[in-house]
Amino acid sequence: MKTQFGPNSVAAKRLLEDLEHLPPGAIAALAAAGGGTFGTAEDDPDMASRALLRARLREIATFGGRLDAVRAIGDEVESWASSTTHWFPAGVAGSSESTAEMGPRMAAVPMVLDAAYGVVLEDLLDAAELDLLLGPWEEVVGSPFDEGPDSPDLDESPRNEADDEWLAGEIPERDEA
Questions:
Q1: CB atoms within 10 A of CB 58
Q2: Residue 5 C-beta-side C-alpha neighbours within 13 Å
Q3: CA 177 to CA 172: how far, in whole Å?
Q4: pTM summary value
C-alpha cells in the first residue's frame, strides 16, 4: 500500500490488512450490522445518527486536512468490495460462484467505510462519533488501534530497542568482544 492515511496510518493499514483476510461469516456480520442491503429499520437510533455523522465526515476530513487520506482509504475499500479473488482458489474466481459472493461484500461496505473513515479521522472525532463508526467493526473484527500478540507490526520503520533506551536518556550497552 503506497498511500498515506494521515497520522493514523498504522491503524489504517492494520484495518486494511484485516479486511483482506475477513472470512465470509465476518463479512456477513458486518453487512447485518449495517442492515444488509436494505438498511436498518427507520426507528433504529444508530441509523439516524450514522446518517447525520456520515453527512459531516467530508467536512471533518476537509477541516482536518485529511480529505486525501479519506479518499485513499475509500479507494482501498472499493477495491476490496469489487474483488472476490481473495476468497477462492485459482480457477474458481470469476465463476458464477464467486460473483454470487460479491453481495455480502457490497452490503458490508457502509460498515467497512465507517470503520475506515473512523480510523483515518480518529483524532478529529469525539468518543461517541468514533464509537458509532467503529463499533460494528470492533465487535466483529476487533480494534485496529490495539496491537495484540498476533498483530503484525505495520510500522514502516523497524524498531531498535537500543535506540529507544538512548532516547529515554539511557546509554545503550555495547558489546565489547
A1: 12
A2: 27
A3: 15
A4: 0.71
- Tell me the average pLDDT across 133-160: 69
DSSP string, 26-93: HHHHHHHHTTGGG---TT-HHHHHHHHHHHHHHHHHHHTT-HHHHHHHHHHHHHHHT--TTTS-TTTT
Write out the three cell numbers for 142. 476487533
Q: Which helix (H) or strand (E) holds 103?
A: helix 102-120
Pick from 101, 106, 103, 114: which is nearest to 141 by CA? 114
Measured CA angle at 145 (ends 135, 102), to 5 deg: 55
Residue 59 C-alpha cell reads as 467536512
Residue with cell 483482506: 20
Q: At residue 145, what is the residue type?
A: F
Residue 32: predicted pLDDT: 84
More confident: 111 or 164 = 111
- Distance from chain centroid for Cα 36: 19
